[in-house]
Write a structure and sequence with these properties.
This protein has ten helices and nine strands. The chain is an alpha/beta fold and about 290 residues long.
């Protein structure tokens, strides 16, 4: 079970998310669960008809049923300027965490406008972003998941191993990504969903719980990273430059080569450990 692998079950016996505020940017909301408020950037109903946003909403509600959940509905495909607008709208809800299960798979150094804006708002909230499903290729995490201040989440199996298709780093400027991984095979009723889109909500729920109490987004991101459990990594997939025509891109790839074998480009700091993160946060608050 995904919540068991991420050590969430003990925490959930005493915690239902009361006081947590979570914003979801996606294709809409589930009609089965409450929405505290919303912004609709489309000309369609808030209720999701594409199922992706609905499943994200249901996943977070399943973990934290007492949390306030806010929805920002976006169109598919989503132009960059609409995604920046969506992030601005999400921040208005004053969330402890924002879930963005949207990704791209092309190499990037994080200098794009969306990644810049993610870095900006991460001073006050935690932006959890799916690493994408471009693995096992290296450098398959693109904007906005390459944003330096994002909590980028890759995928793990329920056996605690790296999910084969989880997006891999490093970024084009040599930073390792993802930050952590979380279980990607998640059961919603009788349906089994998979992909890093569904790993991100588990990390979002943990981030919201911790940020509600710690009230420091940077400290919470580091807390989640440092309490993660390392998991085994197989031999890195060979890098190919097929289809790469720009000389500047090839130069950056060559410069990044020494960093490619870093296991953190596959699993980050490891699989999230909700119980350990919560206990560490409590101890740190006791010393403050």
């Amino acid at each position: 079970d995904a919540l068991s692998v991420s050590n969430f079950l003990d925490l959930l016996r005493e915690e239902q998310g009361s006081g947590c505020r979570i914003a979801i940017i996606d294709s809409g909301a589930s009609s089965k669960h409450p929405v505290s408020d919303y912004t609709n950037l489309t000309d369609k109903s808030l209720t999701d008809t594409e199922e992706h946003g609905r499943y994200i909403h249901e996943a977070i509600y399943k973990i934290l049923p007492e949390a306030e959940i806010f929805i920002v509905k976006i169109p598919d495909p989503t132009p960059d300027h609409i995604l920046v607008t969506a992030l601005k709208e999400a921040v208005k809800f004053k969330p402890h965490a924002i879930n963005l299960s949207i990704s791209s798979e092309y190499p990037s150094d994080g200098t794009d406008p969306i990644s810049h804006y993610v870095n900006h708002i991460s001073k006050t909230t935690i932006v959890t972003i799916a690493a994408g499903n471009g693995g096992p290729k290296l450098m398959s995490i693109g904007p906005p998941a390459v944003a330096e201040e994002a909590l980028t989440v890759g995928g793990a199996t329920v056996q605690g191993r790296l999910w084969r298709r989880s997006g891999r780093g490093p970024t084009l400027d040599g930073r390792w990504k993802p930050n952590v991984v979380a279980p990607t095979n998640y059961t919603l009723g009788h349906l089994l969903v998979s992909g890093t889109s569904f790993a991100a909500p588990i990390a979002t729920a943990l981030a919201a719980l911790l940020n509600r109490d710690v009230k420091d987004s940077y400290a919470v991101r580091k807390l989640i990273e440092l309490t993660a459990r390392p998991i085994p990594v197989s031999t890195p997939h060979p890098l190919t430059m097929q289809g790469t025509r720009k000389q500047s891109l090839i130069k950056k790839l060559i410069e990044a080569w020494p960093r490619l074998t870093d296991p953190r480009n596959h699993t980050g700091m490891g699989i999230i450990d909700a119980g350990r993160a919560r206990e560490t946060a409590r101890r740190l608050r006791g010393f403050s």
